[in-house]
Design the sequence.
């Protein structure tokens, strides 16, 4: 398909595109910070959960493994279904596990909830990737390069912030995890609202024109990659 004939996938979000970009970036900031925050929390965290110093790397590893192993299957699930259920699942898992990590005692329970937190992070990452790719089909401009640069900067900033926050909180380490609740809501609520409003608009257009009966969670979210493949 010639580039001039590509469907304007991002147009389905209208003026909410910038908000969607910002919300996706914040979600990835939290995902990166969640990976590193426990590494510098110090002895207060280890004493509260019975973690030996040699076990702290496992608190990072189980998170990263869950994120790495699940993001691709969830990405494929979004392509075959819709992003909204995966987004809601990711928000719920990330928030609930963050709270649970402040309440549990014992190394096995702590590591288990870190894995659950990583699964939530995988769902958030898969959703962010799907939405950002759906918004950005115009390969004639430099937006993909700029987007990659911004995405990388956000992840690095989140990872560094997690290290700094873990070192600063000290004995009050639970507050660093509780902070995930309002921050995740700040990122998640706009995404959920945009997807729901776009889905309702798509259904209304489909009912009126009779040509868009599928109705997704955003115009072209499931079709963006197909359009990119066809454009070669």
Sequence:
């Amino acid at each position: 398909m010639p580039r001039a004939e590509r469907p304007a996938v991002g147009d389905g979000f209208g003026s909410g595109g910038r908000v969607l970009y910002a919300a996706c970036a914040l979600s990835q900031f939290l995902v990166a910070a969640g990976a590193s925050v426990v590494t510098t929390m110090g002895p207060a965290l280890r004493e509260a959960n019975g973690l030996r110093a040699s076990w702290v790397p496992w608190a990072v590893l189980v998170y990263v493994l869950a994120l790495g192993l699940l993001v691709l299957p969830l990405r494929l699930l979004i392509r075959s279904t819709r992003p909204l259920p995966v987004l809601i699942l990711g928000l719920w898992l990330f928030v609930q596990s963050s709270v649970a990590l402040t309440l549990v005692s014992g190394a096995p329970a702590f590591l288990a909830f870190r894995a659950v937190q990583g699964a939530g992070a995988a769902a958030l990452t898969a959703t962010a990737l799907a939405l950002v790719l759906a918004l950005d089909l115009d390969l004639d401009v430099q937006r993909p390069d700029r987007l990659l640069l911004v995405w990388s900067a956000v992840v690095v900033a989140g990872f560094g912030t997690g290290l700094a926050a873990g070192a600063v909180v000290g004995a009050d380490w639970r507050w660093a995890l509780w902070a995930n609740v309002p921050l995740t809501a700040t990122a998640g609520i706009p995404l959920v609202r945009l997807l729901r409003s776009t889905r309702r608009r798509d259904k209304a257009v489909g009912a009126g024109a009779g040509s868009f009966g599928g109705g997704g969670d955003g115009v072209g979210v499931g079709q963006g990659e197909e359009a990119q493949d066809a454009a070669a």
Observations:
- The longest helix spans residues 180-209.
